[in-house]
Amino acid sequence: MNDSAHFGIPDNGSIAVCGLGLIGGSVVRALRAGGFGGRIAGHDTDAALLRSCRAAGWIDEAVQDLDGLFDRHDLVVLCQPVAALLDCIATHAAAIGAGRAVVVDVASVKAPVVAALQAGGAAAMARFVPCHPIAGKAQHGWEAAEAGLFQGKRCVITPARRSDSQAEARAAAFWAGMGAQVAWMPAEQHDRIYAALSHLPQLLSYAYLHSLAARPEAEAWLAYQGTGFQGFTRLGGSDPALWADIAVHNSAPLVAEIDRLGDALGLIRHHLLLGDGAALADAFAGARQFHRAGVAASAAVRAATQVHPIPPVPALTQEPR
Fold it and tell me: Which CATH architecture has domain 4-186?
């Protein structure tokens, strides 16, 4: 990453980042670290943060509202929580459709975003490319942001019916410039996958900690915790409001995953009641094998990012249902 062209826009181009938390802040830091030659505008509900980022040179312009934003920049990156993002699309769909900017988002739920764009009209769908960089962590906010957050990570694009191919190409080049490996899939498929791989683990950590917190004696037990407890509960330190917002907007796939997990726990409970160690060992061995497959798949994504940074835009024929 060493010039604007690596981020999919002209050398003298302009990018606006709306929401300077973990993801938006990491976008800004990556642009600066990568030698981005154009201008960066920032928008956030925290006016003090905007002033601080402007004074420190992270952004060139602090934007107080979104009016006119989509016609003044080459790329607009919307990093709001899901509910706020949907409100933004509903309010500004006409401006998005009429503007010159390619617009991307970072929400970890995609079907509601696609539905909002469909309600906003064909012009907005053509300019807006729904995206999900798979690069979160338990810490949040500007201070948790880091320039290398997207390096070697996946970014999934879920076009709204069919975004303009040039808009998709710009979005793909932008995320590749961030160091991510870009993939495409329909929004509903995305939401089912990430209900299983991301949202359920988060809820499971919360549920486990919630069950312990309800037991008066459990707080004293924390003095005896080990690395297993710390590793398993790491996600419990995540932003509760952010994750409640994600969960309610992906509720149907998430409830289905909760039911499947309940079945798996029920089977383990059955083996325990029978004292069937062999059956437990078989179940645990299958789990370990799947874990190893996950480690290998993650390594393959990182390796592929180094070899093939910008994939072509595929000719999708399957519509989000």
Answer: 3-Layer(aba) Sandwich (3.40)
- Identify the burial level of 223 via C-beta atoms within 10 angstroms of its C-beta, where 0-12 means exposed, 13-18 middle and 19 or more buried: exposed
18, two tokens: 């709306």
Structure tokens at 60: 């060139």
Pick the CATH number of 191-301 from 1.10.3660.10, 3.40.50.1460, 2.60.120.260, 1.10.150.530: 1.10.3660.10
- pLDDT per residue as tens digits for the range 83-112: 999 999 999 999 999 999 999 999 999 999
Residue 246's pLDDT is 97
- Residue 5 pLDDT class (50, 70, 90 cuts): low
> What sign has the CA pseudo-torsion 305, 311, 316, 321?
positive
Tokens of 92: 């500004």
Contact status, residue 90 vs residue 30, Cβ threshold 8 Å: no
